[in-house]
Amino acid sequence: MIVGIVKEVVIVGKPDAQETSELLKAYREAAPYNAVLSFVPGDEATEKLTDLLPPVKGKTTIDGKPAAYVCRFGACGAPVMNGEELRSKLG
Fold first, then answer.
1. Cα distances (angstroms) measured from residue 26 to each of 48, 58, 89, 90
2. Measuring CA to CA, how many Å separate 12 from each of 1, 60, 66?
3. Which of 27, 38, 67, 87 could form a disulfide with 79 if both were Cys (CB 3.0 to 4.6 A apart)?
4. 28, pLDDT greater than 80
5. 37 close to 30: Cβ distance less than 8 angstroms
6. From CA 87, how far away is CA 91, in angstroms rounded?
7. Radius of gyration of the chain from Cα atoms?
8. Could you give the C-alpha distances from 80 to 27, 69, 77, in angstroms and in order?
9. Distance (Å, rounded) from C-alpha 70 to C-alpha 17?
10. pLDDT of the residue at 59
11. What are the DSSP calls for 34-66, one per residue?
């Protein structure tokens, strides 16, 4: 039984970057009960990671900056680059 729309969130970025921390914090603060997070530590997912987590395929940083993608039913919106935008997409 589906209770609601499941949101898949993919965050791509270097783990030690402040902008990545901001996106992860925004997810933790704003993620609804029906959201699932996949984190890609780097500029893009490795082939092995995309085999394990198909939603991360094709998700990359934008001009070297961390990005978050919010997806529903396998379709993802444009990447967001800061916590405020991510909170808005998850709200």
1. 27, 22, 11, 9
2. 31, 6, 5
3. 67
4. yes
5. no
6. 6
7. 12
8. 12, 7, 9
9. 20
10. 96
11. TEEEEEEESSB--HHHHHH-GGGTT-B-BTTB-
Q: In the block, which residue shows the tokens 């993620």?
A: 31
User: What pLDDT does residue 5 have?
Assistant: 77
Residue type at 21 in one-letter notation: S
The strand pairing partners of 70, in sequence order, are 9
pTM over 0.85: yes
Q: What is the pLDDT of residue 1?
A: 47
pLDDT of 4 strictly over 90: no
